[in-house]
Amino acid sequence: MIAAFSISPSGIGPSVSRSVADAVRLVRESGLPNETNAMFTNVEGEWDEVMDLIKRCVDEVAKSAPRVGVVIKIDHKPGVVDGLHTKVEAVERHLAED
Amino acid sequence: MIAAFSISPSGIGPSVSRSVADAVRLVRESGLPNETNAMFTNVEGEWDEVMDLIKRCVDEVAKSAPRVGVVIKIDHKPGVVDGLHTKVEAVERHLAED
Amino acid sequence: MIAAFSISPSGIGPSVSRSVADAVRLVRESGLPNETNAMFTNVEGEWDEVMDLIKRCVDEVAKSAPRVGVVIKIDHKPGVVDGLHTKVEAVERHLAED
Amino acid sequence: MIAAFSISPSGIGPSVSRSVADAVRLVRESGLPNETNAMFTNVEGEWDEVMDLIKRCVDEVAKSAPRVGVVIKIDHKPGVVDGLHTKVEAVERHLAED
Fold first, then answer.
1. Which of A11, A72, B89, C39 shows the greatest Cβ crowding within 10 Å of its Cβ?
2. Do B14 and D69 touch (CB under 8 A)?
3. Position C75 confidence tier, pLDDT thresholds 50, 70, 90
4. For residue C12, pLDDT beyond 90
């Protein structure tokens, strides 16, 4: 499955990039395929390993914020391999064909 | 923490209430405080018990659909008790005061 | 269509119920069918009227916060009437039948 | 502001890349800064132009599906220019410093 997740600390001022960086570091150290963009970090793996990683990210951010908001969107489709790339490629292929 | 989650099976036609009902049954049997509205089911508890419940709901829905989309929004605020009610009450109190 | 939306001011401390109440007031004054729970406010209507309402809510909250996060989930199904109630009733009916 | 949005047609089978491609084409023709990843398309602009674009994307997808789910996450922070790049760069800078 692929999960896109976003962690928003609140109660600590409007600039949160330091806190977000601490979470992104955990993602990159996880060994799971991942990609961080302006709004979400995408991670691909099995439910338990992805969710365990997100939990550790939330715990990390919660160290420096009294409240943390999390948004997770999951695409659960058994049998997909390297979905982080193949999903985008399928869209690009349709666009190139037209 | 409180989690609002929504599970959307796809590839099985536009009517999904049967499949959603199977998941809601698991939520009600969990013993965790919960509430189902037109768009999300809200559940209150610790991270592990809430996430384990959502996983079981996704597995249940995935039995009858080749693909499942999940959206989860979490409000993680340590020390909050009965947030399912107190959050709405705080808003209502402000509205009544004005 | 039905939209569930949540507006999160940031940079103003962890307690946001006053700010959220200002937005809920606009929703209730809109005349659109609506329901506020612990995580989202659900509103039912046509795209333009719902999105115009959400914009006014965001503008209201942005008056007192340097940054505002918004999450919107939409169920767009032409021909549905009173979906705020009928969606939940369909689930309850399945649960009662089993 | 930046909006991340995802449009999920339902009732048309599990493969939706053709339908998603039709929406991505509209995004690219819009002239707004944008980026499509495996889970969301990010678009940067003013509220009205971004929301008008998303509406046209939903209408396009709704032509071939009886039901459409939409998830939108917005980061509303007045004064930010080129947030699609600067947000990621701020995180990378923190990671490089440590």
1. C39
2. no
3. very high
4. no
User: Which chain A residue shows the shortest CA-CA distance from C12?
Assistant: A11
* ipTM for the predicted complex: 0.94
Distance CA A25, CA A3 (A): 17
Find how far residue C14's CA is from the centre of its chain: 21
Stretch A41-60: mean pLDDT, rounded?
97
Identity of the residue numbered A45: G
State the total domains in chain B.
Answer: 1
Q: Do C72 and D72 touch (CB under 8 A)?
A: yes
Q: Specify whether the CB–CB gap between C22 and A83 falls below 8 A.
A: no
Rounded distance between C-alpha atoms, residue A67 and residue B35, angstroms = 22
Among the partner residues A39, A87, A95, nearest to D75 by beta-carbon distance: A39
Closest by CA position to B40, among listed A16, D5, C4: C4
Cα–Cα distance for residue pair D28/D62, rounded to 1 Å:
19
Closest-CA residue of chain C to B77? C14
Q: Which of A51, A67, A71 sits opposite B73 (nearest CB)?
A: A71
At D81 the three-state DSSP class reads coil
CATH number where A47 lies: 3.30.70.930
CB A4 within 8 A of CB A42: yes
Q: Which parts of chain D register pLDDT below 50? A: none
- Mean pLDDT taken over chain C: 92
Structural domain span for residue C44: 2-97
Name chain B contacts of C84, Cβ cutoff 8 Å: 37-38
Amino acid occupying residue C71:
V
